[in-house]
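Quick one:
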Amino acid sequence: MKLQDMIGLAVFEVEEGQEIGKIVDFVVDSSLTITGIELESKSFFTNHVKVVAWKDIVAYGEDAVMIASKESIQKEDTDQIPHTYLLGKNKLKDLQVVTTTGTIIGRISDVYFDQKMGNTIVALEISDGLVTDLIEGRKWLPCSEEISISEDAVLVPAMSEERLQKAINIVNG
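Output:
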């Protein structure tokens, strides 16, 4: 499943079945594990966001995400969030992907995770620019333990460009 496909999904709490918001982003740690979801927030001039830890998600699907209760929602300081997918200062989307030998292989356009594996990111969808995307299609790079995230790029092992595969939605659980 792609993270982009989950942006905007309604979030319900199981206790009363009440809709509590919509997903606007995902919180990701430096080992490419999804640690939580960020919910829409009404206030614009604050450095806090509403986050639900991944462990408090009871179920998720194509139409909605179910969380244990309203108590699962925590306020997080944006400076304490290591990485996000879509928003914020340390976002993964559009970050350059560079091999350790200095080859730029593109930018992150989406992130795949396997529902059967829980919250582990299994692949990065890579864009090499609009023209290349139209002609060849986007590619995806399977994740490995050697991948590291910095402020300016995602560093991948040498020869990763040879591991790129045609992006097809095969990671649906």
